[in-house]
Every structure is written in C-alpha cells, then in structure tokens.
Amino acid sequence: MNADIRYSIIIPVYNEEAVIDQTYRRLKQVMDSTKEPYELIFVNDGSCDRTTVIIKKFCDQDNAVKLITFSRNFGHQIAITAGMDYALGAAVVVIDADLQDPPELILEMIAKWKEGFDVVYAKRTKRKGETFFKKQTARLFYRILKASTDLDIPTDTGDFRLLDRRVCEELKRLPEKNRYVRGLVSWVGFRQTAVEYERDERLAGETKYPLKKMIKLSLDGLTSFSFKPIKMANYAGVMLILCGLLSLAGMLLLKLSTATVITGWNLVIALQLVLTGILLTMMGIIGEYIGRIYDETRDRPLYIVSECYGMKKKERKVKHVS
Ligand code: UDP
Ligand code: MG
C-alpha cells in the first residue's frame, strides 16, 4: 500500500460529460483544503459520451487523478467495488459524480473519522429536484428493507460515505456478485456514524438510474439481507391450512347440530384450502433449504474481529473460517 496517500475519493461515472468538469473542480478544491495527500479515482462505467476524454485531460494535468475504464456498463455498485479494489488511501470516500452529494461534506466526514469512527455515512434529510415517484419509492424501499432484516441498515442513506481502510479491506473479502454495497458496509460493522445533509439537485444531465436499475438494486438489497420473502410462503401456507380446517370443522358442527345440508362444493373449497396450504408450506420448506444454500454460496466470513486485546502479536493473527 502506498503510505503517502491519505484519502481516496471514488467517483463512479456513467455518461457524465455535462457535470464532470465542475465535479472535478469542486472535489479538488475541497481535497486541497485538507493539505493532505489524496487521489481522485474516476471509475468510468462504460461511458459512450466524452466523459473518458475529459477525465484523461484531468489525469494529464493532475497527478492526483486516476481513471479506471470498464469495457462496458457494469453498473454503479460494481463501479464502486472496483474503485475500492484500486484505492490506496487510509480513508476511502465514495461520492456520486453529479454533485447531488456536496463534496464539502467530505470534510465533516474526515473530522468524524479522525475522532475514531470507521464508517461515516451521509444521511439525506431532504432530496431536492427528484420526482415525487422516485422520492416515495426510495422512502418505501428503505423502510421495507429495514423491516425485513435484523441488520441495522440506515434508512435514507446512499453510497456517499467514508470508509476506513480496514472496512475497505473487509469489503474486498466479500466475493458476492449481486452487490448492495451500502448493506455490505452495515454487515461488516465497526464504529459507524452519520452526518446529515440535504441532497441537492443533479447539476446537469439526466439520472443514470432508470426504473429498471432501481428495481434491480432494491431486489439485490432485499435478497442479500433478508429471508423474509421465503418465510412468507410458509406463513401463507399455514394460514390457508388453518382456514381450511376451520371451515371443515364448522361444516361438521353444522351437520351434526342442525338439519343443514352441506353442499359438495363447500367441501371441495375447504379441502382445496387445506391442500393449497400444504403445497405452499412445502414450497416454503424447500425455500428454507435454498435460502441456506444461498447463504453458503455467498461465502461471507463467519465473523470479523475488530480488536484482539491482551494477546501477543503472533497470537493475534486472525484465522477466518469461511
Ligand atoms: N452510475 C454508474 N453506472 C450506472 C449508473 C450510474 O456509474 O450504470 C453513476 C452515475 O454516473 C453517478 C452515480 O452512479 O455518478 C449515481 O447515479 P445517478 O446520479 O444517475 O443516480 P440518482 O442520483 O438519480 O439515483
Ligand atoms: Mg444522482
């Protein structure tokens, strides 16, 4: 690791020719003010406009600028991951290229990091210039995710955050493909805190997150951190069986205590409920097994040690079981 670099700023870019100039200028201004060595890593996620040409120009003028270009569009979360693989700094900051995340907030994050926090994430108190639909669906998604998992994934928080080197190293050890990076950061743990901000409008250009990509991201988030959807089949199955059995019991009671004639289709419906319930429950059980297989294939480490105390250096060597 290059010990000279203190901060690595990772900026995923996808067709951002309209803003990239301003973004570079503002980031440079903020990072220069720290008076510490830093690098700006632009991860070009397969842009097909002038983004590459513009960033190459920054690289030629400024040693702090680095560019990684993907062979095609692999997606925002993968771009962030690549940035982390190449980052050399003691602290790593991920920020969007469209200036919706104010670069000035990085200074606040650095201050918290110097206080001893390992992760400083930026929590949005307001989102400006985004459609009602986007704001409401995002709001709903964060709440559903929070309710579906035991993991403490902060709401209204994107990927704009600072990570200590050791958090970055742990993230690099997670080999899963469908990555929901902000969830993985929560999963890794360590001392985490928030700084609040109002999210600005995109400076120029259009969102690179159409509905299709948003749905993919939310499904990645939900399926990576929650088994609730599988469990729902079980609950629904048990409910159906109960309903079927109750109606059968009701019919039997009516038949025995009164002269009511129970027609055939009543019986068919009740039996249908019980049978569908049994099928759903069985599917849920198979789902539980698939869930466990999924858990194993993700190959996350079983635990992460943050500190060993009262041990000699040799004893401190962590042996991970994975
Ligand atoms: N981005 C990317 N690859 C993609 C989509 C987006 O690298 O496939 C980058 C984009 O250039 C920006 C960041 O990810 O820096 C966030 O995208 P955007 O601002 O369009 O999302 P929104 O803020 O509208 O949710
Ligand atoms: Mg944006």
Automatic annotation (TrEMBL):
Compartments it resides in: Cell membrane
Name of the protein described by the UniProt record: Uncharacterized glycosyltransferase YkcC
Transmembrane segments: 232-253, 265-290
GO MF annotations, alphabetized: glycosyltransferase activity
Top-rank taxon: Bacteria
UniProt keyword annotation of rRNA-binding present: no
Residues of the Glycosyltransferase 2-like domain: 8-171
Organism of origin: Candidatus Desulfosporosinus infrequens
Its EC number(s): 2.4.-.-
Pfam families (UniProt xref): Glycos_transf_2 (PF00535)
